[in-house]
Specification:
alpha+beta, about 45% helix, two-stranded antiparallel sheet, 8 strands, about 240 residues
Length: about 240
């Protein structure tokens, strides 16, 4: 008979009050990517609370389906999210997977031609250089490999930063954020941060956030880390310990 999961009573203090919930975690070995669904669920709770707060103050969200300016940002992913994206692509049907991988390869090629891909993929990772490169990518507005006809092809599984980015200013402003003061909804600490801290601690690698466009390449270079496991409850507790 399989062991019952451990149920974590989660209570997180946020700028908008405490978030409480019960999250069951299986006792089996768990990969870093398997933490991501729990992080996505927590992010949805935080974002919902923040959006409700904005609405009460007369600031409704202006984001709408087909408004894809944020899908041209260099979305930063923690290592667990990088591996989760690779899992998501690998789970696609053969024809769709081939097409999606081609989109990732095209994006990788663009970053290589700009000479910035190695900033995230090399062993000499430097936070300041990565930040400058991310700003340059933001100015150039590359399409996300999951962007299809101005719509996210993996919207239910979209990354944490995509979930957390909502605006109350006119949607058109997001396409020209250098000219307009885009009003983003304040959610608090991005949940990619505790995931990144946990991954760095458990794998003994530099703390880094990797652009979504490089998720497949990074996973290929770190297959051993993508497949490494830890006891599930221990890994989830580590995530909670790094929340602040």
């Amino acid at each position: 008979m399989p062991e019952q999961p451990i149920v974590f009573e989660v209570e997180l203090e946020t700028r908008l009050g405490p978030i409480r919930g019960r999250i069951p975690i299986e006792r089996r070995p768990m990969r870093l990517a398997e933490l991501v669904p729990q992080a996505l669920a927590l992010a949805d709770l935080l974002v919902r609370r923040a959006i409700e707060h904005e609405a009460r103050d007369g600031r409704p969200i202006s984001c709408r389906r087909g408004c894809a300016a944020c899908c041209r940002h260099p979305v930063p992913l923690s290592m667990p999210e990088v591996f989760f994206v690779a899992d998501r692509v690998n789970a696609l049907a053969a024809r769709e997977q081939t097409a999606r991988v081609a989109r990732f390869r095209a994006a990788e090629g663009q970053l290589e031609r700009l000479g910035v891909a190695r900033i995230w993929l090399g062993d000499d990772y430097d936070d300041a250089r990565a930040y400058d490169a991310a700003l340059e990518l933001l100015r150039r507005r590359f399409d996300c490999p999951f962007l299809d006809e101005e719509t996210c092809a993996v919207h239910p599984d979209r990354p944490l930063r995509c979930r957390e980015y909502n605006v109350t200013s006119p949607a058109a402003w997001c396409s020209d954020s250098e000219r307009h003061a885009v009003q983003a909804v304040a959610v608090g600490t991005p949940l990619s941060t505790p995931l990144a801290r946990l991954a760095a601690e458990r794998t003994g690698t530099p703390l880094r956030l990797v652009p979504l466009a490089l998720a497949l390449r990074f996973t290929e270079q770190h297959r051993d880390l993508a497949e490494r496991t830890w006891p599930g409850p221990d890994l989830f507790q580590g995530f909670l310990d790094h929340f602040y």
